[in-house]
Structures are given as C-alpha cells and as structure tokens.
Design a protein that fits this description.
The complex is a heterodimer of chains A (247) and B (153). Helices cover 40% and strands 14% of the residues of chain A. Chain A is α/β, with parallel strands linked by helices and 247 residues long. The longest helix of chain A has 18 residues. Chain A is globular and about 45 Å long. The two termini of chain A are 33 Å apart. The longest helix of chain B is centred in the middle third of the chain and has 41 residues. Chain B is elongated, with a radius of gyration of 28 Å. The chains are: A alpha/beta (247), B mainly alpha (153). At the A-B interface, α2, β3 and α3 of A face α4 of B.
C-alpha cells in the first residue's frame, strides 16, 4: 500500500496566510513525504508566497485576488498538465489536519472512489461546533445533496478532498463553479458518473477570516440552490480531452 | 394622439441616438457587434414616433390609456434587454479574465505582488520582482532583453 503519496499533488490555495501556510506545508510533507506540494497564492498582499517557497512548496501566484475556486482550479490545471495521477487539496489556514491525508489516500484506493471528501460530521464525535446559521446551511445542502445523489453526504462544504486525475480534469473545464465550489461540485460529479465517498476527519476551528467567509448568508444559499438546479438541468457533461489541456 | 411637440422630440431624440451610435462605430469607440441592439432600439423608437398609426394600434392592443406611456413601455423593454445583454457580456468577459489570470499564474514568470513587509523594493535591482522558484535570474533578464529588442525594432 502506497501511503507515501507518490505521484500525488497536494494543492493549497492561500490568500494572506503568512505564518500559517508554512506549517500546513510542513504537516503535508511529514504526512506524505512522497507528495508534491503546490501553493496557489491568490494575490496575497503579505509574505504568503515567500513563506511557501521557504517551506519547500512550488508556488503559483495569481496576479490579483480571484477567489478560492479560481485558485483551486489553477492548481487542477497545473496538476493535470504535469500528469499527476492523484490530486488533493487542503486549506492553508490550518483548519484541515494533514495527517488525515494518509487515510484519505487509502480510501481513494480501497473504496473504488474517484473523490474522497474529509467530513467533519461523519464521526458524530461533535468535535466541531459550527455557528447556528452555518449548521443550518450545511445541513440543508447536505440533505439536498444526499437526496439528489442517493449517497450519504454529511459535509458538502468541506474543501478537504483527494481525487483521481480524471476528476481534476473535469474541474479544469468551465462547468466547474469557480465562485463557490461546494455542494454543486458533488452533484456535478454524480451527474458525470464519478463516485464520491466521505471519510470522517477532525478539523481545527477556523481562525476566523478566511477565503471561505462566503459560506453563510442569503447570497450563498441562493447561489448554491441555483447552481444545483442548473447543474441538474444540464444534460451531459463533456469532459475535455487531455490533449486540449496541454499548454 | 400624442402631442406634436412630443412627437417632434421623440423623432429628434431617436434620430440623435441613431446618429450618435453610428458615429461611435465610425470612430471605433463602439464595436459593430455591440451596436446592433442600440441601432435596433433607435430604429424602433423612430418608427413608433414617426408612424402615428402604429403607436395608436399598439396602445390599443396593450390596452394603454396613453400613447406616450406605450412609447415609454416599449422603450423600457428594449433597455431591459440591453442590460441583460450586457450582463451576459460581462459574465463572458469575467470567464475570459479568469482563464487569463490562471495562465499568467501557470506561466510563473512574473510575480506581480506588492513587496512583502520589510522587503526592500530595490534590493535585487529588479523593480521588486521576485524570482520564481527554480527559475534562473539570467533567464528572466534575457527575456527582458528580448522584450526590449522587440520594442526597439
């Protein structure tokens, strides 16, 4: 069983995470010494990129702040073009604990899945206590996603994921919602015929301001409902061939 | 009937709009592609203003009391479509900008960041540009040389 993480790229989208991103890179490298680490610096105005370089990651810098989804998709494009077999993603703020990447990698191999999501809620250990508004939002979309995909989805907002390259290739196309990739992505995968599995992980409390602050509020609910609705309306999703993605 | 004054103003206004749009295209301030809806709007308004019978029939058809309000009503419908058209254009532009941003990041040849706190702009004599990991400074400078040559020739 390969748990060193060979042929695996871990993407860390980062916006102004100086002082935190370095630790995340160190954690990923100690959990999976064979994996390559890519930090996509989303137009940070602090020393995020320099920190990431110092910690030994490859760094791509977006010239202006473009948002979490755009940064992630930049990472997918890099990973697919470089030909990685597996691509993972972890937040730069330290909320996700890199030691679970090993279990996620094993699950990707053993469970015959295309995408593994690290879920805060699957363990039912109540280590994570979201605010009421957030809990309602996450619960709504978890139920809706489970209903549509006929799979148990407990944490559709989790950005802690590990996927096969064919999933990342789909994410490189313009069906990928670059503004708030979330529950709609899981439904997109289901519609495309890819299998999504969750495994329980523990997360640390988010340090507050982050790239994901849009995860509550009326606009988020509206956008996600509309996005899920149009994803269901789109008949088939065409996956662009590898050749077209090559630079 | 709309008043003669209003009719004259409406005809003059829509003619002025039409001429202004064509002039913008002539000066290349407006692409032909984007002029279509504006020209259509101006022509429709001109037609309604000049052809009294059409406006009367239209007002009767929609059950409006006043012909003038019928004119406004259709004017507003045109404007709504124009705005929707531009929202589509903006979405399209935004998608292109994202692709370009990502390609710039993937090229990895420049770093457009403001300098990190405590870092001296002129420290490396390269206008604050940071070296991308794995990239040789000479390669960047050579690329700059090439750009300069192209500009001179």
């Amino acid at each position: 069983m390969d748990v060193r993480g060979e042929d695996l790229l871990i993407i860390i989208p980062a916006y102004n995470e100086q002082g935190r991103v370095g630790h995340v890179i160190d954690d990923v490298k100690s959990a999976l010494p064979g994996a390559d680490v890519l930090v996509v610096d989303d137009g940070s105005t602090d020393g995020t990129a320099a920190d990431a370089v110092k910690a030994g990651a490859t760094v791509l810098s977006l010239p202006v702040n473009a948002g979490y989804g755009v940064a992630l998709q930049t990472g997918y494009k890099f990973g697919v073009r470089a030909g990685y077999a597996k691509i993972g993603q972890i937040d730069a703020d330290g909320q996700h604990r890199a030691e679970y990447l090993t279990a996620m990698l094993e699950a990707l191999e053993q469970q015959d899945a295309d995408l593994i999501v690290g879920s805060r809620f699957l363990g039912h250990d109540d280590h994570y206590k979201p605010s009421l508004a957030r809990a309602v939002g996450i619960g709504l979309f978890a139920n809706l996603t489970s209903l549509i995909t006929h799979e148990q989805v407990s944490d559709p907002t989790s950005g802690f994921q590990l996927m096969r390259s064919r999933v990342a290739r789909l994410f490189c196309s313009d069906v990928y919602p670059t503004d708030y990739p979330d529950a709609d992505v899981l439904i997109l995968l289901h519609r495309t015929g890819y299998r999504v599995r969750e495994i329980p992980v523990q997360m640390r409390p988010s340090p507050g301001k982050s790239m994901h602050s849009g995860h509550t509020g009326p606009y988020y609910v509206y956008k996600m409902l509309l996005s899920i609705f149009v994803t269901l309306l789109r008949r088939g999703v065409k996956v662009i061939p590898q050749a077209k993605l090559a630079p | 009937m709309i008043s003669t004054n209003l009719r004259i103003i409406a005809i003059a206004g829509s003619l002025a709009l039409l001429i202004f749009v064509i002039e913008l295209v002539r000066r290349r301030h407006l692409k032909e592609e984007y002029s279509v809806l504006w020209v259509a709007t101006a022509l429709a308004l001109l037609l309604l203003a000049a052809w009294g019978g059409l406006l009367r029939d239209l007002a009767h058809f929609v059950g409006a009391n006043s012909q003038a309000s019928t004119l406004y009503f259709f004017g507003i419908i045109f404007v709504v479509f124009l705005l929707l058209h531009f929202s589509v254009r903006v979405s399209n532009l935004e998608r292109r900008v994202v692709v370009l941003l990502q390609e710039i990041a993937l090229l990895g040849e420049r770093d457009a960041h403001p300098v990190a706190p405590g870092e001296d702009l002129a420290a490396d004599g390269r206008d604050g540009r940071m070296t991308v990991p794995g990239e040789d400074l000479d390669v960047v400078l050579a690329a700059d040389e090439r750009t300069r040559e192209t500009r001179v020739s």
